[in-house]
Amino acid sequence: MGYCSGMAFRRVGRALGVVIGVGFMGVQAAAASGYIDVDWNKVKDDAIKPFDTVRHAIWKRDGNVGIAWETSNLTIIIVILKP
């Protein structure tokens, strides 16, 4: 039973890898040909967002710089005042 399920997952994994690879190559070819314009920074941000458990922000107001990190139960804010 374990051997059969392992072989099934192996075949499905290979097929999924081929589909994702061919899809990526198609997008790259279309972008290189000028048919589409892919915003890879947005793709990267959208791909990382579900796994990013620490949200952070940096802002600048009146010469002061602030940094904030927020997790599910803790918020840390650091403000660097202009001398």
Kindly report how far apart the N and C termini lie: 70 Å
Q: Which blocks of ≥5 consecutive residues have pLDDT under 50?
A: none
**What Rg is obtained from the alpha carbons, in whole angstroms?**
22 Å
Total domain modules: 2
Taken as a percent bin, the fraction of beta residues is: 15-25%
With helices defined by DSSP (H or I, 4 residues minimum), what is the helix count?
2
Nutshell version of this structure?
The protein is of the alpha+beta class. Helix content is 49%, strand content 24%.
What features would you describe in this structure?
- It is a single chain.
- With 83 residues, the protein is α+β, with helices and mostly antiparallel strands.
- It has two domains: 1-52; 53-83, no CATH class.
- It has two helices and three strands; from the N terminus they run ααβββ.
- It has helices spanning 2-33, 40-48; strands spanning 55-61, 64-70, 75-80.
- A three-stranded antiparallel β-sheet has the order 1-2-3, with no helix packed on it.
- A hairpin with a 2-residue loop joins strand 1 and strand 2 (64-70).
- The radius of gyration is 22 Å and the shape is flat.
